[in-house]
Design a protein that fits this description.
CATH topology of the largest domain: Rossmann fold
GO molecular function, one term: tRNA threonylcarbamoyladenosine dehydratase
Strand content: 25-35%
Low-confidence stretches: none
Protein name: THIF-type NAD/FAD binding fold domain-containing protein
Structural class: alpha/beta
Domain THIF-type NAD/FAD binding fold: 182-412
Helix content: 25-40%
Shape: globular
CATH architecture of the largest domain: 3-Layer(aba) Sandwich
Largest sheet: 9 strands, mixed
Distance between the termini: 39 Å
Mean pLDDT: 94
Number of domains: 2
Number of strands: 19
CATH superfamily of the largest domain: NAD(P)-binding Rossmann-like Domain
Length: 476
């Protein structure tokens, strides 16, 4: 699939409310306005639908087709301007299935109001159409010159929550051609599910041991676009865990080395692995993450997790997070080895509330304390920041759990898309019962859902000045 330039997304809550209003029992068309906020990635802009502005009595007419009165448009435009948001016009095609085209009347209705919307909001007017099967299609009306606005189709529309459900415009996101190497994979869940899965852009944040396993599983499963985000280089001490590295790779950039390795593993008819040499808390890494449809969190520091937590809610990009904890006793014997996986998205408990990172440590990392050996040595020796233990097999197991979380969310097998928070204990060989926690009332992330660039959080920044130096590859 070619790199997507425009897309739209909404939460399952907004989708459900829109379905109730737009898909009428009498099968007549209906409409409503909504507010949207931009999510600006490196190459993709996404319209995040925050909330609907439903019509009041006398503001719209349903007569087989649907139309709205000027005072409804004026009210919606005023609400958008006050909220520092863009304006969306949603309408239904009751007899349609899948991605919908536009009739001349549809085009005239949207294009004729694009100038007024841009003048009031300084954002493009966005149109969304829902078909009878719940499939969405979307477009931006972009200003080309004074009083000239052109339609620019989105390639995808995503509905995010318990599931990740996507609709694709086939002209911009064609169905991938199956290959002989994918016969067993496609037979497991069918051509349609494979097509939906393969067209997702997947981001791997952290090209360490867990990220490497996940990235290779994506390439072998047939995902067409993988983005690898990591700033570090391969060191000799990594070789006992990095699936893609040998001694000849020592000194190479992890993102570049892993992306190159994936090309040899990919089973799709076309495949692109994009290496991004940055941390996710740096501007380049952050914007690359916003180009993705789903992210895997393979980082263990608080700042990176804090950024990914924000992305999951403010930008409606599900984040599949995981972690490994290994503990030895005073005799240097293995006492515990646990790994967990969970999906962080709208309606799920956030990483901060489930204790995956300490918000108080984010600022300390920004100031460089977590790269200060003196500070780290002063912590209790059981503190997670002092943990160094890990094993290839433990990384493989954790990566498996995270991969299965993502597959369940996209494939929705038998309607069971959310495995919950999973925790496995190697010592004793048992899995804890899955949990489905909720954030506390004081959690700030519930207040930024679908606000995107307008969320008010500044989470990116320059790397700490004393971050571990990146080793240069030795000359041979």
């Amino acid at each position: 699939m070619t790199r997507v330039v425009r897309s739209a997304a909404m939460s399952e809550t907004v989708d459900a409310q829109a379905r109730r209003h737009l898909l009428r029992a009498d099968r007549q068309e209906d409409l409503c306005f909504a507010l949207w906020h931009p999510s600006t990635g490196q190459t993709r802009t996404t319209a995040l639908v925050e909330r609907l502005i439903l019509p009041r009595e006398g503001e719209r007419n349903v007569h087989g087709n649907a139309s709205f009165e000027s005072h409804y448009f004026t009210r919606a435009l005023s609400e958008a301007a006050q909220a520092d948001a863009g304006l969306v016009l949603m309408h239904s095609h009751p007899g349609g299935l899948a991605w919908q085209g536009m009739s001349p009347d549809d085009i005239n209705t949207e294009q004729s109001r694009a100038a007024a919307v841009y003048g009031a909001t300084k954002l493009p007017f966005v149109g969304l159409t829902i078909a009878s099967d719940g499939a969405w299609s979307a477009r931006f009306w972009e200003r080309m010159a004074p009083r000239q606005y052109a339609k620019r189709d989105c390639a995808t529309v995503r509905v995010v929550g318990e599931r990740l459900r996507s609709t694709f415009m086939e002209a911009l996101a064609p169905v991938p051609r199956g290959t002989e190497a994918q016969i067993r994979t496609i037979s497991a869940w069918g051509k349609k599910k494979q097509a939906d899965l393969a067209r997702l852009r997947v981001g791997i944040v952290g090209a360490g041991s867990v990220g490497a396993f996940i990235a290779e599983s994506m390439a072998r499963t047939g995902i067409e676009d993988v983005t690898v985000i990591d700033f570090d280089r391969i060191e000799t001490k990594n070789l006992d865990r990095l699936l893609y590295a040998t001694r000849t790779n020592v000194g190479e950039l992890k993102a570049t080395a892993l992306a190159g390795h994936l090309g040899a593993c990919a089973t799709g008819a076309r495949f692109e692995a994009l290496p991004v040499v940055a941390a996710v808390y740096e501007e380049a890494g952050f914007r690359a993450a916003l180009d993705c449809d789903v992210l895997f969190s393979c980082v263990d520091r608080p700042w990176g997790r804090h950024v990914l937590n924000l992305i999951a809610y403010a930008h409606l990009i599900p984040v599949v997070d995981g972690g490994i904890a290994v503990r030895t006793n005073r005799h240097e014997e293995l006492a515990a080895a646990d790994w967990r996986a969970h999906t962080v998205t709208v309606g799920h408990q956030c990483m901060q509330c489930m204790g995956q990172y300490d918000a108080g440590l984010v600022q300390l990392e920004r100031e460089g304390y977590l790269d200060d050996p003196t500070y780290i040595q002063g912590l209790d020796k059981r503190h997670p920041l002092r943990a160094r233990e890990n094993v290839f097999a433990f990384s493989m197991a954790c990566a498996s759990l995270q991969t299965l979380q993502m597959l369940a969310m996209v494939l929705d097998p038998l309607g069971r898309s959310n495995p919950g928070q999973q925790l496995y204990h190697f010592v004793g060989s048992f899995m804890e019962p899955s949990e489905h926690g909720k954030c506390g009332p004081e959690c700030l992330f519930a207040d930024v859902v679908a606000l995107g660039d307008h969320c008010g959080f500044e989470v990116t920044g320059d790397p700490p000045a004393n971050r571990d130096p990146v080793l240069e590859k030795p000359h041979t």
